[in-house]
Design goal:
With 412 residues, this protein is α/β, with parallel strands linked by helices. The chain has 15 helices and 14 strands.
Length: 412
């Protein structure tokens, strides 16, 4: 591991399909509460989705909500919650010394689909096309909306990392702090994916959209009968600071961002590559300066697709073959796949394990697929392990992007 400045988490803000705060989210993960519900969207029809229900007007006026985007609104809610939780004073740190880095899977599809539908009601008279469309669809929109809302003058942009976007947002924030470009970073990922019919249609055409009579059981990673993903929305943003700065102001430190790795499969548009995933995990552990046996929890990316889950389990099994008491879980079984938010949101759900020593389970595994039977899987009920020192968070995405982030237990 290189000699570098240490980066810590001092605040977390989130909205998920089963909770709008870290405490609520964590409670529902420990109590087996799913956030997947019936959903119907124009041109596609009935399906299921992970739907967020946060109080958008807590931080935005209704006029701003009408002008902005759903992804921007999610980001604003999460950013404000993270800022409040951290206790950081923007004036003290300097508004030009705060950066905003938001991971996304994609952005703009929702707004474009909505506008095409709108003008179709007027025989495609483009004079009805909204002048707000361009700022709504630019790639930096969710991060930019945060800076407008909070009056932040430092750098902002979105990191297009497919479903690895949430992890990439965290990595970018940590790196910018180490470079000295900013003194605080609001970073993570957001997704508004359930509001575009195109994503449902595309996953359906790929044979990758999950189905089950009970909406809460559609997302079932590792289960013998899994048949596809649940599309979900959500967001999670972290306040990151350098350790010395956080300690100087007496901030409560929730975790240390100890290491990370990003690599590429260079193999296929959609299908994952277990060898590259294994290399990504090992690279993150090496970057953090730890061995596999020092990891307490591995949060898997597994999306509930037949092949994807198997290949990830193959990679995890190789890395942790001799690791001992590692616990392996999955958060998508509760909330579905929150796309660009997944890495950041799933990591947050595991972070309280540093305090309570409990690992949340994977739910909906009625019949474990033998090909996914990795030692250490936590299924059905939480596991009290007493102490967790490191969490390895995995997020992989289309076009073969892999990411892994290691968080370390804060020092007493």
């Amino acid at each position: 591991m290189r000699d570098r400045q240490r980066i810590v988490v001092t605040g977390i803000g989130l909205t998920s399909p089963n909770g709008n705060s870290l405490a609520e989210f964590r409670s529902n993960l420990l109590n087996g509460v799913s956030g997947v519900k019936p959903w119907e969207i124009r041109h596609f029809g009935p399906t299921v989705a992970g739907i967020c229900d946060f109080e958008a007007t807590k931080y935005q006026k209704r006029k701003a909500l009408r002008r902005g985007t759903r992804a921007g609104s999610i980001a604003i809610y999460c950013a404000n919650e993270a800022l409040n939780a951290s206790g950081l004073d923007l004036e003290t740190v300097g508004r030009d010394r705060v950066g905003v880095y938001v991971g996304t899977t994609e952005h703009g599809n929702v707004e474009t689909e909505n506008m095409i539908h709108e003008v179709s009601q007027f025989d495609f008279d483009l004079s009805y096309w909204s002048h707000h469309h361009n700022p709504r669809t630019v790639a930096n929109n969710p991060a930019g909306e945060v800076t407008l809302n909070l009056g932040i003058h430092g750098p902002h942009y979105c990191v297009g990392g497919a479903c690895a976007g949430g992890n990439l947002g965290i990595i970018q924030g940590a790196q910018m702090l180490q470079l000295g470009e900013v003194d605080a970073a609001i970073c993570g990922g957001v997704s508004e994916s359930i509001h575009t019919f195109g994503i449902f249609a595309s996953f359906k055409s790929e044979g990758a959209l999950g189905e089950h009579p009970d909406p809460t059981k559609v997302s079932r990673p590792f289960d013998q009968d899994r048949n596809g993903i649940v599309v979900s929305e959500g967001g999670c943003l972290y306040m990151l600071e350098r350790l010395e700065d956080a300690e100087a102001r007496g901030a409560k430190i929730l975790a240390e961002v100890a290491g990370w790795k990003v690599n590429s499969d260079a193999k296929d548009f959609v299908l994952p590559h277990p060898e590259r995933q294994e290399q990504c995990m090992r690279g993150a552990l090496d970057n953090a300066g730890i061995a596999p046996g020092e990891v307490g929890i591995v949060n898997t990316h597994a999306t509930s697709t037949p092949l994807g889950d198997i290949q990830e389990c193959e990679a995890v099994a190789k890395v942790f073959a001799d690791a001992g008491n590692v616990s392996i879980n999955n958060t998508k079984s509760f909330i579905g796949h929150t796309m660009g938010a997944a890495g950041a949101l799933e990591l947050a759900g595991n972070l309280p394990s540093f305090t309570d020593g409990v690992v949340h389970p994977t739910i909906n595994v009625d019949r474990l697929d033998p090909a996914c039977d990795v030692p250490g899987l936590v299924l059905g009920t939480p596991r009290d392990v007493g102490r967790v020192d490191h969490i390895l968070n995995l997020s992989f995405g289309m076009i073969g992007i892999n990411s892994a982030v290691v968080l370390r237990r804060p020092e007493a």
